[in-house]
Structure formats: structure tokens, C-alpha cells
Specification:
Blueprint lengths: L6 H7 L5 H7 L7 H10 L6 H4 L12 H4 L23 E3 L2 E5 L2 E5 L29 H8 L6 E5 L8 H11 L7 E5 L2 H4 L6 H8 L4 E6 L9 H12 L2 E8 L8 H13 L3 E6 L14 H12 L9 E4 L8 E2 L1
Parallel strand pairs: 3-4, 4-5, 5-6, 6-7, 7-8, 8-9
Antiparallel strand pairs: 1-2, 2-3, 9-10
The protein binds pyridoxal-5'-phosphate and iron/sulfur cluster (SF4).
């Protein structure tokens, strides 16, 4: 038997990577296979098995399936969609460190993810080999020490929780040498797509950190929040973590008032506040997910009439060169 703290690594390496296997497991038509194979050659398929169990068998339009199934549409060239839509290339302060907004910096710990979301702008990002930890985090620590206005460090990726807990511990030990740091934030999809990752070792690490801790999860649909995810979120809460969620507005996944309403309700039932609803980054390969600004605004306005204000996420878009995400 595996020690409890290594269960997640097993679940991670067991993820489904073969389009044919995905179709078989979900009882989907074989006609989907040639396109899935072609699209997966550009951005590989990857889905943890636990996520698959939340997908309805035989339904090619399942909102969770649409986030992970490679489609021929991804290979189309569409005007206005490109490879670096948010201008990250220009904001790199140190390898892996993005300083775009005042008071907070974003550190990319890994290019890897447990799940490959077909709409993600990271599908083209070249930082797979750029491991900022190679120099023992010294470049990052130096930068923070010379920027006293930075009070919040955001760990991002890829998925920062793909680093194992001893690696995270080494980073946080170094960060204790940055006196003006107040908050540590993690942007991670793992509490929802690989809830095994929220194990005792990670919770012990989180609970002992000297800063305020925030975890921003990424759920797009209420079906992503089942029992295992609820337990992981509750455990994070007990470790003193403030829980927020960001979603991406995606055609065919969550572009209805009902779906967004249920998502907010389900999130809050697990102690998570909706934070952002992002308009899609216009990355090539994702055009078929786009919802027009006009419809996005209409959905958001309607949502405001069905939910208390604190359960309505801010509708925003990331625009290269701006000092914050822009409200629509
Ligand atoms: C989105 C983002 C942040 C965080 O922005 P908040 O509005 O604080 O959530 C920080 N840095 C970068 C580079 C980002 O893209
Ligand atoms: S960065 Fe987030 S949205 Fe993008 S592929 Fe990874 S988990 Fe999905």
C-alpha cells in the first residue's frame, strides 16, 4: 500500500492520455477519434480518472468533457487568436516571475498541469524547461527583497501544487527571509481535479505558514464539485486558507445563467467565494469556446438578479499592458 501522502502522485501518473481510451471509458462514438488524435498531437490530452467519473457517459456535449476532449476546431486558424494573448512575454522580471500588477507578483513554479484544459492560453507557453527553482530560488528571493512594495506572492503555473510538499517547503523556508511578505496565494486546479493532492502533508505545511494563505481554485461547472472535492476544500479551510474560485466563461460549458448560478451556489456550499469570471484569453485553438462580450455582459447582469452580490464573480478580461484585469 502507498503511504497516504503519495496517493496523489499515483493518481497523477495514472491520468488518461490516450484519446482512444477516453472515448472507450466514456462510451463515446469512435468517429470522434481522428480529430481527437490530431488535436492531441498539438496539445496532449490529459485527464485524471477521478475527473472522468464526473462526466456523463455517452454524452459528447457534457460540460466537463468539453473542457478536456481534443477537437478538430482547435486546429483552425482564427483571426484575432494568437499564441501569447496576454503579453506575458513582456512582464517577466526573473525566469518564471511575472510582475504586472502593483503589490503582487506571480511565480510560475512549473509548466505542468494535472489536466489539460483545451481553452487554456498556457497550451503554447514555452516555460516548460524554465524551472525558477534551479538556483535554489535565489533569483526570486533577491527580486522580492529589492521590491518592498510586493506584499503578495502568487504561486501559479501550470499548477503549483504539482510540486511536492518538500519542494514547497524549501521555497517557503526561503521566503521567510522576505520581511514585507503578507500573503501567499496559490492558483490551483488540483483541489478539484486531483483532490488526492490535498493530503496531510500539504495541510500541515499550509497551516504552519507565517503569512495569510489564499487558494484560488478553478471550477467552471458545478459538476466539478463532488464529495471528494468538498472534503478537500473543507480541509483547506480548516488549515486556515481563504478559498476563492475563478472560472472562465466557455461556450458550451457554462454560458447560461442557470449553470453559473448553480456553480456559485455549489462553490459557496463548500466555503468558496466566486472571485473572477474571465472572458476567454484569445489564444489560438480556443476560438470555439468564445462567448461575445455582449452575451457575457447580459449573462452577468442576469446573474446579479438571481444571486446575492457576494456570490456574483467579477466579469473581467486580461488585456496586455493594463495594470489589472479589466472589468467588462
Ligand atoms: C491575474 C494576475 C495576477 C493576480 O491578479 P488579481 O487581480 O490580484 O487576482 C497577478 N499577476 C499576474 C501576472 C496575473 O496575470
Ligand atoms: S493552467 Fe489551469 S486552465 Fe490551464 S491547462 Fe493548467 S489547469 Fe487547465
Amino acid at each position: 500500500m502507498l503511504p497516504r501522502n503519495d496517493v496523489w502522485k499515483n493518481a497523477l501518473s495514472n491520468a488518461v492520455r490516450d484519446p482512444a481510451e477516453l472515448l472507450t471509458l466514456l462510451a463515446l462514438p469512435r468517429e470522434l477519434l481522428p480529430a481527437a488524435r490530431r488535436a492531441a498531437a498539438a496539445f496532449p490530452l490529459r485527464v485524471p480518472r477521478g475527473y472522468l467519473r464526473q462526466i456523463e457517459k455517452g454524452n459528447p456535449n457534457d460540460p466537463l468533457l468539453r473542457q478536456v476532449l481534443p477537437l478538430g476546431e482547435e486546429l483552425l486558424t482564427v483571426e484575432g487568436f494568437n499564441r501569447d494573448p496576454v503579453g506575458d512575454g513582456a512582464a517577466t522580471a526573473r525566469p518564471g516571475l511575472l510582475h504586472k500588477y502593483r503589490g503582487r507578483v506571480l511565480l510560475t513554479l512549473t509548466g505542468g498541469c494535472a489536466i489539460h484544459c483545451r481553452y487554456c492560453f498556457r497550451r503554447h507557453f514555452p516555460y516548460g524547461e524554465e524551472n525558477p527553482g534551479r538556483d535554489g530560488w535565489q533569483g526570486v528571493i533577491d527580486y522580492l527583497q529589492h521590491h518592498p512594495e510586493v506584499e503578495e506572492l502568487i504561486l501559479s503555473g501550470g499548477d503549483p501544487l504539482l510540486l511536492d510538499t518538500p519542494q514547497l517547503q524549501r521555497l517557503s523556508d526561503k521566503l521567510r527571509g522576505v520581511p514585507h511578505l503578507k500573503r501567499l496565494r496559490l492558483h490551483s486546479r488540483l483541489p478539484l481535479v486531483l483532490p488526492e493532492r490535498i493530503d496531510d502533508e500539504l495541510l500541515t505545511w499550509l497551516a504552519a505558514l507565517p503569512w495569510q494563505r489564499v487558494v484560488v481554485t478553478h471550477a467552471n461547472h458545478a459538476h466539478e464539485l463532488g464529495e471528494a472535492q468538498g472534503a478537500a476544500l473543507t480541509a483547506l479551510k480548516h488549515a486556515g486558507v481563504t478559498l476563492l474560485n475563478q472560472s472562465v466563461l466557455l461556450r458550451g460549458v457554462n454560458d447560461s445563467v442557470d449553470t453559473l448560478h448553480q456553480l456559485s451556489e455549489r462553490l459557496f456550499s463548500h466555503g468558496v467565494l466566486p472571485y473572477y469570471l474571465h472572458q476567454l484569453d484569445r489564444v489560438s485553438g480556443a476560438a470555439h469556446f468564445e462567448v461575445s462580450d455582449e452575451r457575457a455582459r447580459a449573462l452577468h447582469r442576469a446573474l446579479q438578479t438571481t444571486l446575492p452580490g457576494y456570490l456574483v464573480p467579477r466579469l473581467v478580461r486580461e488585456v496586455a499592458g493594463e495594470k489589472s484585469k479589466l472589468p467588462l
